[in-house]
Design goal:
The protein is α/β, with parallel strands linked by helices. It contains 14 helices and twelve strands. Helix 1 links the parallel strand 1 and strand 2.
């Protein structure tokens, strides 16, 4: 498996990106990594990681430009034709790699991925689908920010995309699909939600989806479904709220256990459980968010990615590349049209 990695994307590039790539090939020697970026900076980062020479399974493709957060995300990849994102996605398009990973600008990555790699024919919009921690096996949230305004057809397609991903990449048999809403009754929500409910109900009755109905956010977090469908605006609010609550709880628990000698002693007794809980809420554990609906896997790692996050994003890219999602979408595209 060959993974293309944007070495210049994100707040900690290129050092943490290169370090993460080196971790990945050390853990999985069968992997091949293509690091795309300013070659001298990439090689210097490798030397800082203790690698005088890059391993034979890692090579560098030079890209002299970098898309930053000040660039227009819709046009930056066209203006900066030698950027690490543009060069990397063109390599993916040319089938010189199996998937692409970047911690760079989300908007630029989505625009470039849509126009260079292209959507599967018939898919109206690509969607971002992060895996969120829940009391169950985790939750695929579709969409979390790529499409702030949606139509019924977009949301129906998101349901199929999320279901295919949960099934093929996560191994969940007949994933339960829920529609994010303010109540469980079919009369709840705005017109978009009510119309989408009817369309998903029909798909469920036909046996195409395992639709479990409207889902309140609190029930979704408790493990009420495997795939949660919503527009990008609501999904992003939910995602950021979960991240904020996780950070808040972590700080509060730490403060509680550090109050006295007795509480510090108690902390030692539950240290393992607390570490596991903290790890589940840490976005570095997941690594990144796939763009579903594109012809080839593109993974967006968060902008502040550490080496661990990049390593896990690479593993996620490997899983997505092996899942054959594009082929399954193509086989079922007629079911996804309204």
């Amino acid at each position: 498996m060959k993974i293309i990695v944007d070495a210049m994307g994100g707040d900690n590039a290129p050092l943490e990106i290169v370090k993460g790539a080196l971790y990945a090939v050390k853990a999985r020697p069968e992997l091949e990594i293509i690091l795309v970026g300013r070659e001298e900076e990439v090689r210097n980062a490798a030397r800082q990681c203790g690698a005088a020479e890059l391993p034979g399974t890692v090579r560098v493709v030079n890209a002299t430009e970098v898309i930053d957060m000040h660039d227009d995300p819709a046009t930056a990849f066209k203006v900066k034709k030698d950027s690490s994102i543009t060069v990397g996605l063109n390599l993916l398009k040319a089938e010189e790699g199996d998937a692409f990973v970047s911690a760079g600008s989300t908007g630029a990555l989505l625009s470039a991925g849509t126009l260079l790699v292209k959507r599967v024919r018939g898919i109206r919009r690509a969607a971002m689908a992060p895996l969120l921690p829940t009391s169950g096996r985790g939750l695929v949230l579709v969409d979390c920010g790529a499409n702030a305004e949606c139509t019924v057809e977009y949301l129906v397609q998101f349901a199929y995309l999320g279901s295919f991903y949960a099934s093929r990449a996560m191994g969940i048999d007949r994933p339960r699909v829920g529609l994010l809403n303010i109540g469980t009754e079919d009369s709840k929500g705005d017109q978009l939600r009510r119309d989408t409910y009817r369309a998903l109900t029909a798909a469920g009755e036909a046996g195409h989806l395992n639709f479990v109905g409207n889902m309140e956010a609190k029930e979704a977090v408790k493990g009420g479904c495997d795939v949660l469908v919503t527009d990008g605006f609501s999904g992003n609010v939910m995602l950021k709220t979960i991240e904020g609550v996780g950070s808040f709880m972590g700080r509060e628990l730490k403060g509680m256990f550090m109050k006295s000698l007795r509480s510090k002693a108690a902390a030692l007794l539950v240290k393992g459980g607390l570490s596991e809980f903290k790890d589940r809420l840490n976005p570095d554990t997941i690594g990144g968010t796939p763009f579903l609906g594109l012809q080839k896997p593109v993974i967006k790692a968060h902008g502040g990615s550490t080496a661990r996050a990049v390593e896990n994003a690479i593993y996620q890219a490997v899983t997505a590349a092996g899942a054959g999602l594009a082929a399954q979408i193509e086989e079922n595209i007629e079911l996804m049209k309204l």
